[in-house]
Design a protein that fits this description.
179 residues; de novo design (two linked rop proteins); 2 domains; 5 helices
Length: 179
């Protein structure tokens, strides 16, 4: 789109932000009211931060500054990809609203690119989508490996991995053993 988005596009993007933020709030409420706490202590903060990142990308794309207007395809493509992929990964918990928000942002991103169909816009949208998805996958791969064991008692679990091989872990007496 040109320097100014249409009212419908802006409204759809604002709705996507609100849906993502509401979904994140419900996610955090449910997680922090569960007992016992999940042993992979960094995954929840990573997911919440990732949802914030997508909302920020969408919000920045609403600005009418010339530099931002040029970056809109990338900002919206990245946010759409992040929401869509996280929506699929979290399909059985927080995913459906995120996926729907991603579909909305993708629709506006496609419209943004189609109104000024320069090769650079198309490439930047796809490149941003790849970077955001790579960030999501890397974040999951790294945070799944940070296990906090209870000081007493035992627990165990596993991670199938997205890119890397999965692993299992056992906690005994506050010590984690990765296998």
């Amino acid at each position: 789109m040109g320097p100014r988005d249409g009212r419908i596009a802006r409204l759809l993007l604002i709705i996507a932000i609100v849906v993502a933020e509401a979904d994140e709030a419900v996610y955090l409420f449910v997680i922090f009211n569960q007992s016992p706490r999940a042993p992979d202590v960094l995954t929840v903060p990573f997911v919440a931060s990732f949802i914030q990142l997508t909302a920020i990308l969408i919000g920045i794309s609403l600005l009418s500054l010339p530099a931002v207007v040029r970056l809109r395809p990338a900002l919206r493509g990245g946010a759409a990809a992040g929401l869509l992929v996280l929506g699929v990964i979290g399909a059985f918990s927080i995913g459906a609203p995120l996926f729907l928000a991603g579909v909305v942002v993708l629709g506006v991103a496609v419209r943004t690119v189609s109104q000024a169909p320069a090769l650079l816009s198309i490439i930047s949208a796809f490149a941003a989508a790849l970077v955001v998805v790579a960030l999501l996958v890397t974040g999951f791969e790294l945070t799944a490996r940070v296990i906090e064991c209870p000081a007493d008692g035992s627990s165990s679990g596993s991670w199938n991995g997205i890119v890397t091989g999965g692993f299992t872990w056992d906690c005994v007496g506050g010590q984690v053993q990765l296998k």
